[in-house]
Amino acid sequence: MTNSAAQPARAGLMTMNGELTKTKLPQSAEEMICFAIYSAGHAVNRAYSPLLKALGLTYPQYIALMVLWETDGLSVGALSRRLRMESSTLTPLLKRLERLGHVERRRGVEDERQVFVHLTKSGRALQRRSPEITACIIKATGMDLTRLEELVEALSALRDNMIKAA
Which of 19, 48, 113, 128 is paired with 141 by a 20 to 30 Å CA distance? Predict the structure, then answer.
């Protein structure tokens, strides 16, 4: 007996209302959304790398700092959720940021099991460089702000839909 849920996927693409289209499925890596996202992610990392190297930061460290610039003093759990990163991956990153003097981790007063991440003076000072970095990255995309906002919205929807489907 075959899996009926798997059969339609081989025949065509599902639309949002569950109907099949007669569209041919992607055949090569270049035609697949996963490869486009994967390779674009690497290109973004490469574009950020020299800009962040001057600050002594990696791209994941910079993204963590960006979230903390928005909301300082988040718990490790809350920061992990915002970054969509496992805490086992986040903890070593935070330890490195702490060694660099950009954040301080403090145990909760009410619950010592919780750890909160606070920016230091050095960590806050890095925020002044952020607009310059953002401007360089926007220029590197070759897209206008409206197009980039639409892209961010589409990628966020894609991410959320994939999380729901998992």
Answer: 128
pTM over cut 0.85: no
Residue from 152, 148, 93, 101 nearest 123 by CA: 101
**What is the identity of the amino acid at 130?**
S
pLDDT tens digit string along 103-146? 999 998 888 899 999 999 999 999 999 999 999 999 999 999 99
Closest-CA residue to 25 (of 43, 11, 5)? 11
DSSP state of 13: P
Backbone angles phi, psi at 159, to 5 degrees: -60, -50
- Could you give the C-alpha distances from 90 to 36, 93, 94, 114, in angstroms and in order? 26, 5, 6, 14
Q: What CA–CA distances, in Å, run from 83 to 66, 72, 117, 127?
A: 10, 14, 14, 18
Residue at 3: amino acid letter: N
